[in-house]
Amino acid sequence: MDVSSLDISNFLPHRDPMLMVTSVMEIDENSVSTQFYISEDCVFLKEGKLSETGLIENAAQAASGIVGQTFFEKDDLEGTGNKLVGYISAIKKVEIFQLPKVGETIVTKAKLLSRFDTGEMTMCSLEAHTFLAEKLIVSSTMNFLIHEV
Question: Of 36, 93, 131, 136, most Cβ neighbours within 10 A?
Answer without folding.
Answer: 36
